[in-house]
Each structure stands twice: as structure tokens, then as C-alpha cells.
Amino acid sequence: MNREDLANLIFPTITKTIADYEKMYPERNLENEAKVTRFAPSPTGFMHIGHFMPTLINYVLAKQSNGIFYLRNEDTDSSREVDGAVSYIRHVFSHYHIKPDEYEYKDLNETKGLYAPYIQSERKEIYQTFIKYLIQEGKAYPCFLTPEEIDSIREGQAKDKRRIGIYGRYAKYRDLPVEEAMKRIKKGEVYTIRLKSSGDFNRKFKFNDLAFGEMELPENDLDIPIMKSKDGLPTYHFAHLVDDHLMHTTHVVRGQEWLSSVPIHYELFKTFGFKMPKYIHIPLILKKDGESIRKISKRLDPEAKMSYYEEKGYPYLAVIEAVMTIANSNYEAWREGHPTEPYTNFPFSPKKMSASGALFDLDKLDNISKNIISRMTKEEVYEGVLNWSKEYDIEFYNLLIKYKDYSMLIYNIEREQKKPRKDYTYYSEIKEKTWYMYDEYFKDATITFASPIQQVKTILEEYKTIYQEEDLQEQWFTKIKELCTKLNYATDMKAYKENPEKYLGSIVDVTNIIRVALTSLTTTPDLYSIMKILGKEKVLARIEKILVK
RNA sequence: GGCCUGUUGGUGAAGGGGUUUAACACGCCACCCUCUCAAGGUGGUAUUCACGGGUUCGAAACCCGUACAGGCUACCA
Predict the structure, then answer these.
(1) Same fold yes or no, A31-114+283-375 and A124-282
(2) First to last CA, chain A
(3) Per-residue model confidence as pLDDT tens digits over A106-146
(4) Could you tell me if A464 and A543 are in contact, meaning their C-beta atoms sit under 8 angstroms apart?
(5) What ranges do the domains of chain A cover?
(6) Confidence bin at A358 (pLDDT 50/70/90)
(7) Domain A124-282 falls in which CATH fold?
(8) Residues 427-466 of A near strand B (Cβ < 7 Å)?
């Protein structure tokens, strides 16, 4: 009886070798500097902003180096799996125009890429081949510790203030004779496979993280589980080793919470003699909660969910720009110098990444978004609102379809100029800011004036007589001033403020009466533009409606 | 408890020993412009870089300690 027999007892159906798989998944044929990156989520919840940042960085790194960005589904924990998590990722990717070069969508029966399967639960045999090798080499062993035993070990360690985990003398089964192990397995005892660690916790090794720089970490000496008893699937650490080796990942971009697992990964790669990918650990996105700061939470913070941004109707690029700004401190400066280049051209530098967690600033996002919308053409704005309303406001959507050109005129107010208006922050806001332009909504508006109704009527009566649709802006404004003079309103605020008792009011009162009559609101974009778009018929009808009351 | 990482305004941050009386952007405030908004313009907004020591002619920057925050410490990823 030897380790070979033990390996065969545990994995009777595994006949391939590691070399076989390395042949099946050969080196990628890419340029020298090309980076191979991946987004490898576990489908245990819906994608949130904390996933989005690493996704973007991975994507940018691959794109700008003519490399490969692939999607891998890390579904090794079936008990925590959430329905729809994978299709939601697909949705987010398509919403943000992120196209993975390789992926596997089981529900669509769609696979792309030569390193498939990209779903971990379908790679069981591959992992087991690697584990079998370890057993043969005596570098892994079946462990018969029960959960209860492990709990009591942990309790004991905590009580004695010792390091917690299965290592050294706590690793009860690491030196169990092969015969004994086989006997127990044959008897049907439940076991997990653990790595037989050769590390020494008191020894340090040097590790270079591309974001954090060089650091010294203690070697791993934990006999970590690499295969679960329940279904023979590997744990995260082991799957990471196998997949990133076979898929030839060059750069792993992941959240900082993984930094403390590096010693495990280091040992795993060393054990097999595989080259480690480069690591870029990125800061967490945090949230201020009263006085304290914590990791952003899907449960507590609506803005953590990717759906938040879609529902509000931020242009997809606004969210990307905002995240890039957090990810790399010199992104904004680069953007200023390259206003029209795709963000994927940004020379991303891991060294320029902050090492501490960052609060996600929604004000900044709003500002970025406003700027992006202000630089769009009227057609692009229309497209944006249309797509948004199709999902979230079907009534408005129908109106937009009906009044396409008319709506675009509204979006074009003060747009085609050097410094365009910036009043739309996101698409969901546009209806709130333009509804009065549509009779369908305006008919139900309540109209109240700040000035006495007699004054209102006088002004509107007079205005009706001077209003000419074809007037140019300057002509229109001259007429307004003449009207002011005629009715004893000051034509400019300075004059009015100096002698308020001399006048009935100022030009502001006059224009605001017209504004309210036409829109029901006291704040709108330029009145002249609004009237141009409404057209003579609507303008007069809306004025008449007030006069007859 | 152990290990790891961090700490510069309200936010993201630049800066890695003297050119910093701390850049830039967002926010906020004030004023200007103005038919109301949105913009735009001008200016203000950290008595000083978590704290305490040290090194130095000189420290936000280098060293040590402390505090605080976060992460990990699962047959979760």
C-alpha cells in the first residue's frame, strides 16, 4: 500500500495527468506585453459597485495591452448560489459595453474561448487531477476531522490565545499512515483533502504587489482544505491556482480582502512549481455611516447596487468615469488632456492606486454625469431618455416616441454652444425638468402666481398683443422691455432696487408671470427658447387659459 | 488573540526631506453676470498632513512607538 493506491482509491476515475491538461490548454499566443485578466465572481449575490471597480481595471488592463479579458464563474459553493446572479452580470456587462473575450453562458448555451469550461463546477475533473497528483506526492492528505472537532480545536486555540487554524500538531491526520487512511475511506468515513503545508509561520517571504509594492509576509503553515467533502469540488484557493495557471492569467486584480490569502496562494503555486500571476490588490469602496466608516453594503446602501445607477439613469460612461477616478488618482488629469479618447486607452498604473479604501462620492458622479450629458448631441440625449423610460416610465416613453423631434428641440436648448447647459444629471430627471412642454402633462398643472391676479391679467393681455412668433430673441426682449416701461415696471433690477416704490415691479415680475402662465413654474430654461419650441398655438392657448379664469 | 494593510480638508486626492504660506477636481460659501433657472466668471474654504517621540540646519515626507480604522483568521468566495 502506498500513496499511489490512496490516490487511486480517492480518485478512481481520474486518469489524465496535469501534463495532459497543460497540453489541452497551451500557452496563449499573444504579444509580449499582453495581459490576460479575468473577472471571476461567485454567483452568490448580485453584482455591486465593489465588483465593478475590479472588473473595470481588469478590462482596461487587458484592452490596452491587446490582451484577453475573460469571465469565469466561480460556483464552487452550490449552497450559497443565487438564481439569476450570472445573467445579471451579463446584463451589467452589456449595459456598460464591456465585452469579455472569453466566457461561458450556460443558460444560453453559449461558449467562447479555447480554455473552456469557464464554469468551475464543470471543471471538477481538472481540479481532481491536480489534487490526485498532490496525494501521490504526499503533499496533500485526507483529513477526517469532523466539524465538531474543528470547532473545539478553534475554541481551545482562542482560549489559549494561540493562532487559529489546522497546523502543526492540530493537523491530526497529516501523518496518518496510508493504510489507515485507506481503511477509513473504505469504511465510508467523511473526509476532506487538506494541503500538507511545508511552510513555516516564523519565516517570511517577499511578495511584490503591483499596487502595494514590496511586502514581507509570513509563510503559510495552515493545512488548508483544498477539496470539500460534500461534492469533491475545490475551495477557492485551489481553484484559483489551477484555473489561473491553465488559463494563463497574467494579472489578478482583486479586492484588498484577498491580500491576507496571498501566503496560501504563494505556497500553492510554489508546490506545483507554477509561475504566479502578478497581483494587484485594490482598495475597498467604503461608506460613511454616521461617524464611522465601513465597507459599502448592498443591504444598507442603495448606491452599492449596480441597479441604482441604471434606475436613476446615469449614462453608462458617467459611472465608468467616476469609478476610474477613484481607481487611479491621475485619471482625471488624463481625461482633461484626452477628452474624447475611450477610457480603455488610459495608461492605468497600479502604482497610482490608493492603498486605502475610498468613499464613493455621489456628488462627484453627478458632476461627471452632468458634464457628459451636456456634451452629448440632442440625438444622444433623446436615445438615452428613450432607453431609460422604456424600462422605467412607459407613459413617458410613449410620449417620447410620439414627439420625437419636438423632444429633441427641448433637449437642444442652450446645447449647441461652447458652454452648453448642464441641467440634466441623469435620465430619470429629464421628465421632471421638461414635463410642462407636453400638453398631456401640462393640462393637469396647477398654476399659481406670486403677483396679484389683476396684474397678471393686465400683463398677459398686453403680452398677447406684442407677441410675434417669428421675432428674434433680441426683438422679443426689446418688446418685453417696452412693455415694462408702458406698465411701469423697471426694465432692469438695479433701477428697481434703487427705487422700488417708483415701480409696480421689475422686469423679473413680468417675465415670471409669462413663465408661470406658460409652464406653471418659476424656474425654467430660457423663456424665449421655450416659446419657440411650444409654438404660437400653444403659447396663445396657455395664455388664454389664464385670462378666461 | 494572531497576521496583514492603511491613516493628508466635507469627498477623491497630489506631494516620497527645503521651490508647500499643502496642487488639482468635486462639494460648500460669497460676490459678479443675468428674464427665472442651469451654466459661466472671480474669490473664499486644511493656522497644517492621526498622535507621541526621534533623525536633521530643516519633516506631511525618513525611523520608532502608540492610537484608530479596515481586512483575513470557514469543507465562503
Answers:
(1) yes
(2) 103
(3) 999 999 999 999 999 999 999 999 999 999 999 999 999 99
(4) yes
(5) 31-114+283-375, 124-282, 378-439, 453-548
(6) confident
(7) Rossmann fold (3.40.50)
(8) none
By the 10 Å C-beta count (0-12 exposed, 13-18 middle, 19+ buried), A100 is classed as buried
Question: Per-residue DSSP letters for A492-506?
Answer: SHHHHHH-GGGSSEE
A526 alpha-carbon distance from chain centroid: 36
Q: DSSP of A373-409, one letter per residue?
A: HHTS-HHHHHHHHHHHHHHH-HHHHHHHHHTHHHHHH
**What angle do helix axes A404-411 and A394-402 make, rounded to 10 degrees?**
100
Decide: residue A104, CB within 10 A, 0-12 exposed, 13-18 middle, 19+ buried: buried
How long is the CA A327 to C1' B7 vector, in angstroms?
18
| pLDDT for the residue A291 | 66
**Nearest residue to A348 (alpha-carbon basis) of A67, A91, A90:** A67
Q: What is the assigned CATH class of domain A31-114+283-375? A: alpha beta
Q: Give A284 CA → B26 C1' in Å.
A: 20
Q: Which of residues 84-143 of A touch strand B (CB under 7 A)?
A: none
Contact predicate A350/A280, CB 8 Å: yes
Residue A524's nearest nucleotide, by CA–C1', is B37
Strand pairing class (A358-359; A292-295) = unpaired
Cβ contact A101:A69 at 8 Å:
yes
CB of A235 within 7 Å of some strand B atom: yes
Nearest residue to nucleotide B6, by CA–C1' distance, is A356
Nearest nucleic acid nucleotide to A239, CA to C1' distance: B77
User: Which pTM does this prediction carry?
Assistant: 0.93
Nucleotides in chain B near protein beta carbons (<7 Å): 1-8, 10-15, 24-27, 34-40, 69-77
What is the percent of chain A with per-residue pLDDT over 90, rounded to a whole number? 80
Domain spanning A453-548 has what CATH number?
Answer: 1.10.10.350
Helix axes A453-466, A473-486, angle to 10 degrees: 130
A359 CA vs B28 C1’ separation (Å)? 18
